[in-house]
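Ops channel
N.P.: pipeline sanity check, posting one input/output pair.
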């Protein structure tokens, strides 16, 4: 999918997450010349305690300027 900016990607992912039934956690981001070029969004259960495994959804948003 293509979005106009990283905020549009975040809005889409949050709406999808709400529809499916999970929350979003914002992960790492990369910058170039002070501008964010990549940002990761995860399921709120991703990467934590073992008993909460099972979330297979994530979004890596990349900006091209």
């Amino acid at each position: 999918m293509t979005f106009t900016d990283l905020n549009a990607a975040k809005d889409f992912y949050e709406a999808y997450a709400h529809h499916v039934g999970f929350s979003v956690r914002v992960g790492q981001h990369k910058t170039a010349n002070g501008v964010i070029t990549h940002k990761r969004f995860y399921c709120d259960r991703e990467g934590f305690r073992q008993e909460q495994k099972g979330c297979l959804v994530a979004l890596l948003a990349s900006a091209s300027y």
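N.P.: looks fine end to end. Residues 6-43 form one domain.
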